[in-house]
Amino acid sequence: MELSRRELLTRTGQAAALATTASALTAGTAGASGDTVTLTQGTNISVSRSPDGKWLAIDLVTAIWVLPATGGRARKLTDELQDATLPSFGPGGRIAFQSYRDGNYHLYVIGQDGRGLRQLTSGRYDHREPAFSPDGTKIAFVSDRAGSYGVHVLDLATNEITQLTGTPDDAAAPQWSRDGKRLIYITGTTSVDVVSMDGRRERLVTAPSGAQLFGAAFGPGEQPSYTLVRPGQTDLMLGTTAVVTGEDVFGFAALWDGDSVLYTADGKIRRRTGQSTKDVPFEATVPVKKVERHRTRNLAAGPVKGIASPVVSSDGTIAFRALNALYLLKNGKATRITDGRYFDSDPDFSPDGTKLVYASDRTGVAQLWLRDLKTGEEKLYSPSPGAQTTPRFSPDGGKVAYVDHDGQVWVADPAGRRQITPALFQPGRPTWPKDGNTVALAAVKPFSRRFREGTSQILSVDLVSGELRYTEPLPFRSIATRGDDGPVWSPDGRHLAFVVESVAWVVPVDAKGDFTGEPRQVTREVTDSLAWHGNDLVYLNNGRLRRSTLDGKVSTIRVGLDWRRPKTPQATVVRVGAYWDGEAHDLRRNVDIVVENGVVQEIRPQRGRAGTDLSDSTAIPGLIDAHNHWHLRGRQWGARQGNVWLAYGITTVRSPGDPVYQMVETREALAAGTLTGPRFYATGEAIDGSRVYYNFMRPTLSRAQLDLELRRAHELDYDMIKTYVRLPVELQRAAVQKTKLPLSSHYLYPAANIGMDGMEHVGATNRLGYSHTVTRQGKAYQDVVALFTASGLSMTPTLFHSRALFAEDKSLATDERTRVLFPPWEYERYLAEANSGGANSSAAILKNWVEFALAVHRGGGLVICGTDAPLDAPATATHLNLRAMVKYGFTPREALITATRNPARWLGLPLGAIRPGAPADIAFVGGNPLRDIKAAANVRQVMLGGRLHTVTDLLAPYREAGELTAYTAALEPLPSAEKRHWWHEPEWACHVCEDH
């Protein structure tokens, strides 16, 4: 690629730290040849030494390797499906390790010759972080089998397991004392503790404020050794003394031999004696598969498949959301009943079928509206200062249960509102029994504090006693999604229906929801969005509305709605002072852009008259945000979200995970022109494993269920598939083999060898609790960069810590577009963080993240800009990400390419450019973004498919929305609203996607 003089000067003139880091990261990438890559460094690798001191075992790219203690070529012991990490050498050449092969972490042993593989633990609980006792008769480990992560000991002769610590602690990584009588471990990243074999405990170290502790071990004189982690600094400690500082020390147990210590840091195995440090070199060769780019298919017309949240009245009328409006389906005819100007969603019929309650943001914030189905008259039901979503009528029609923007559940009538739960993390839609004394919904219940994943269970609220109770739908199983997949009470109050493993189940219950029998499977096809009609179930199956009796007789309900793209705007000529085509190194001045049929036809010198004169503006390709989740807070954001993306010049977004029917409905509405917003390419729920966290992850436990999910993806025209954190490698590989859709995940390897197309984030949520792609300081090493560049796997940085730039400039937070188009509570939080200077973000970690992305980019890898909005702020985060890239090494042109050409290449579409034949997706900005990246956010107008939008027009609906001044009284909360469980928190409480 030819470089401009400015880019050459910028690259060669970077600070010494960047030059050093970039060269270190790219060193060894030339070792990639053919279908293999030679790795000479490892990111977040751990090391164990054989008792005779002759051999080392390491975990590198999720496999166990052995090499001579003096260094050399490593030999691989485990295969990709084993997903093996954290080796521990024992006597006789045995190595214990943890493996995720079957969808839970379990302990295994193998000989250093690769023979004698044996599984030691099994079951639905996790067993992690093994450590051989000095005499080789026992293995210490941690497990959540007792309600939190406790220290356990396995006797290898008897297979008996003894628990030494338990609830409420969350222990990690025990290591033995030299005499085998005590174990040292970390509790909750804040302390170093010791437990003896009789259960006596002692606290040795407490972390300083703002610091975390990892990798405890016994050092010389039985002093505690551990890694102390602060933003920008990691130290290997012995007692209170920093033995190693100034290195990126990985958080694993160091191995001491007198005053000599073996540890891992800076991508290397190191041995330190006194003040002298020596690296132990290694080489490991792994196979890779070059990515073959897919082409995303643009949908032009067809039957409506985006039927969101259907419900059925007593007379059989069905209400649902489609094409950005609410519809009633009766006698085979669908009738639109709202105008689609705002976001109207989640209808529910009154018990007598004469009224409809639903949520609408026509007042600026989602509120409950009551519609008389005979007269068409509408009125607010029980207004509140916050959002009101997913309403359900009580059986007598006198009350409505709903969920607010913090995940709190309320019961309301026109006289008052009463909170009945604490803030819950993305709860499902409420449901009522016949007597109206209970409200039930889906809610997540984690297995432990240490790892956030759990199962989506039935949470019942007794409205009389105020008691909260969790019930598993099936042992160790989750309700499919915490949205419209249940629980749903039958009209007679005698059954609950829910979806588990992608099919519907029905269970007999009493008035409080306690099971009185065993759940029974009702459907055998992909089942979503359950609703009752008498004793039958109505549901969605891959875009079809279906009805099933409880004995499995299924029929299709015809909806009869179609959609098509609107006619393109008339031909026009836009005159601009300058433009960037998406490739050039400098702007071209004073041109006319000729647009016909929504496509750029010609770019020519100015002549004659122009239809739109923007001579004071620079035209740049519309930006692409390649990682966001439109419906993670879609009901709370409402129709604002499309407007805010466009107002900041973002004309295409890609979602790697959303509630599927909300996603399909929005995608069709945007394509049909009934909703304002960018082009939307997306997938449904990410395919997850045995445990879940977000409400839109699909727990998938078998190959048969995976086949159902892939059929669902095909029939609903997914643009991609995302496999999530707890899906085993075997099912991840099967997904690649079964579909031609592009796939991404949170993992680099073996994704780079099984045909995956991309990795999301620099290194976010990971079942290990840490990443093999980026360290806790945000650094990546030769292994990671070599695998990205050799395979062509895309990386989407999602620079959460870019909010650290608020310390220099908070103009994006104070911008009128942000103030008007963000929901009030979102804006208040965003402004508070800006005013704090991004106090919750780390500039040091941000710098390392960007340098990692820069090394991949300049090594020839594919970096695509994405933000994880709304976990970060929609639209403004895109610009903060670009600014962070430029601050820490990218040129403005390079940064813009990650948000234009590169994601367009990933999608296989002619987007991200201004050239003849390309869609006319253009942002018209003030200034020169090739010199000042901030100019990219200075949007004056934006064109999407040839249609111009002014910022004023995009702001208008939420300037015009009538602001409420009077609210229904908030009554005394029920006792059940008190926070009693640590996992009860609103979804926005932290940037959770970057956790562990």
From TrEMBL:
Domain annotation Amidohydrolase-related: ranges: 619-948
An annotated Gene Ontology molecular function: hydrolase activity, acting on carbon-nitrogen (but not peptide) bonds
Signal peptide per UniProt: 1-32
Keywords linked to the UniProt accession: Signal
Family annotation (PROSITE patterns): TAT
Family: Belongs to the TolB family.
Protein name stated in the entry: WD40-like Beta Propeller Repeat
Lineage: Bacteria, Bacillati, Actinomycetota, Actinomycetes, Pseudonocardiales
